[in-house]
Design the sequence.
């Protein structure tokens, strides 16, 4: 039985905001199925009483003073914008 | 001997006695680049005009007798996922083809404060995903020892440029071996520091809990110089550690008497080529001769590292790379008429295949219903892998093994033997998962291609790694070999 279906791949692509053609979805289904199959070897290990590691350093909330500091100017912030108008990022229609 | 074959300390002596100027060094660097880079293809962007101006300014500083930085006048190449103000930074991706950062990464600021000259930006696998530089969105880089072979990856060009003598040293980044594996393939010295030692501010994130910036050089001494300049806490990176930075150069004593070395049996097992094993055994003999002792040890969860790494790094990447949406910077597709479609088209046109595959895997592993089975499971196995190292380090000062199971391979050959390809990463990935530091130093050849010795240390004990690496280097001739280009 395959671990991931083509419909699931299309759903994941939508979540990831990637456009995939039918052919690409086919290919990705096969490739992801193999990778996930490989990853399932982790199930050999009993990890019921193991704490997950999110970070190797034991860091807790890193706090700093809430002080006013220099920020970037509007011109700098807009420097790499693909489309802009009146100092704001311009995007296509959001509401149809 | 060319200027660029000298060490930092030697060049500083020549600058001090005025036998050499910074302009001479920078001129020699660009001469060399123009001579060989059409073969190696390491650079994506050259910063030539500015470098020559900077050289003049530093020469004036030399004459004036003002205080000089630790790396005064030294030319450096920077991997193209580290942002440089006003210098194009692409991550070797079409999605950032024309991106000009508006600030410098903290490491770049520190290098500038140390009086280096930024020569240019170096090629890589797109967003640091890959082990051969063949995943660059622009062009592959070639191995200076054999141009038909890969330089490794993802910091392949950072290693190739140093090996080819195009720059004295470079910065790379290492998420699963991306500094050490190319350093091994190109016969140079590459260090992945302890997670948190070097600021990641301005490093375009791939897998935030694994990524570290580190130095690539021709000698251990130069490597220590470079780390000295970039290490240390940075308020702009909340994961950067607050630790005292030792004098790394002071650790280069050549003295390893009484040092206890653990050699994991998993690192010399199936899939590791016999001549690689032989070079490692020879290296252990050298260290024994200097008074160190070694014993076989076990890192029993090593075989689970690769699956753990792929799940965690892809999950983190899928979140990190969601920022490339065609709104504030980067490529925007013209083939769309609403916002969601614009996101999808821009990302699909801008990202290469490997990047898309990993985003898909990560999004899947994090998606509702699968999170516990894949992502959380991998985080738990990560704990077991980390504990393997902790246990060995209770009895041993360093862990030693090969950096990679084989030497470099031919361009285009990577899909032919997936097992060897997987094994390629198996010796470097556990180090990132555990967050410990490790170096790769040249330890000989396999059919004319370099092999790397990997020395792994305890958290924040880069000084001991350098001590061992330097003692080994000084007792052998491997680092003196240069590729013929």
Sequence:
């Amino acid at each position: 039985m395959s671990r991931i279906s083509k419909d699931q791949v299309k759903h994941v692509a939508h979540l990831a905001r990637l456009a995939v053609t039918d052919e690409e979805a086919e290919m990705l289904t096969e490739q992801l199925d193999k990778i996930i199959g490989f990853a399932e070897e982790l199930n050999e290990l009993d990890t019921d009483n193991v704490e997950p590691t999110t970070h190797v350093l034991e860091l807790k909330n890193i706090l700093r003073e809430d002080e006013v500091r220099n920020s970037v100017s509007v011109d700098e912030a807009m420097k790499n914008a693909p489309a802009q108008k009146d100092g704001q990022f311009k995007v296509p229609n959001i509401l149809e | 001997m060319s200027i660029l074959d000298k060490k930092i300390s030697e060049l500083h002596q020549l600058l001090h006695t005025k036998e050499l100027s910074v302009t001479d060094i920078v001129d020699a660097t660009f001469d060399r680049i123009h001579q060989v880079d059409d073969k190696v293809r390491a650079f994506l962007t050259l910063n030539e005009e500015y470098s020559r101006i900077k050289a003049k300014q530093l020469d004036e500083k030399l004459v004036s007798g003002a205080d000089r930085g630790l790396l005064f006048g030294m030319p450096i190449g920077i991997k193209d996922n580290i942002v440089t103000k006003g210098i194009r930074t692409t991550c070797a991706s079409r999605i950032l083809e024309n991106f000009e950062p508006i600030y410098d990464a903290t490491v770049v600021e520190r290098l500038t404060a140390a009086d280096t000259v930024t020569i240019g930006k170096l090629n890589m696998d797109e967003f640091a995903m890959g082990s051969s530089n063949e995943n660059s969105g622009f062009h592959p880089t070639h191995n200076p020892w054999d141009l038909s072979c890969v330089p490794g990856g993802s910091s392949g060009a950072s290693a190739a440029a140093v090996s080819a003598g195009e720059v004295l040293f470079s910065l790379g980044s290492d998420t699963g071996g991306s500094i050490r594996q190319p350093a091994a393939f190109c016969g140079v010295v590459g260090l992945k520091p302890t997670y948190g030692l070097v600021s990641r501010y301005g490093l375009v994130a791939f897998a935030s809990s694994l990524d570290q910036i580190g130095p690539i050089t021709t000698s251990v001494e130069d490597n220590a110089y470079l780390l000295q300049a970039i290490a240390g806490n940075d308020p702009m990176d909340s994961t950067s550690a607050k630790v005292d930075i030792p004098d790394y150069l002071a650790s280069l004593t050549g003295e390893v008497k009484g040092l206890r070395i653990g050699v994991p049996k998993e690192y010399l097992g199936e899939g590791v080529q016999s001549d690689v094993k032989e070079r490692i055994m020879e290296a252990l003999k050298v260290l024994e001769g200097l008074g160190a002792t070694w014993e076989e040890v076990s890192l029993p969860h090593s075989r689970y590292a690769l699956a753990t790494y792929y799940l965690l790094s892809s999950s983190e990447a899928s979140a990190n790379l969601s920022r490339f949406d065609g709104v504030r910077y980067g490529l925007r597709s013209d083939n769309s008429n609403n916002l969601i479609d614009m996101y999808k088209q821009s990302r699909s046109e801008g990202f290469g295949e490997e990047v898309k595959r990993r985003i898909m895997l990560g999004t899947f592993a994090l998606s509702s219903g699968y999170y516990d089975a894949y992502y959380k499971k991998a985080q738990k196995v990560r704990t077991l892998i980390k504990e393997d190292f902790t246990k060995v380090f209770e009895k041993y000062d360093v862990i030693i093994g090969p950096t990679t199971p084989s030497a470099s391979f031919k361009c285009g050959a990577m899909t032919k033997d997936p097992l060897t390809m997987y094994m390629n990463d198996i010796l470097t990935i556990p180090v990132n998962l555990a967050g410990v530091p490790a170096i790769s130093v040249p330890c000989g050849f396999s059919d004319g291609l370099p092999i790397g010795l990997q020395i792994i240390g305890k958290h924040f004990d880069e000084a001991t790694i350098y001590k061992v690496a330097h003692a080994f280097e000084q007792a052998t001739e491997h680092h003196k070999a240069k590729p013929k280009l």
Summary: Residues 1-43 of chain A form a domain with the Histone, subunit A fold (CATH 1.10.20.60).
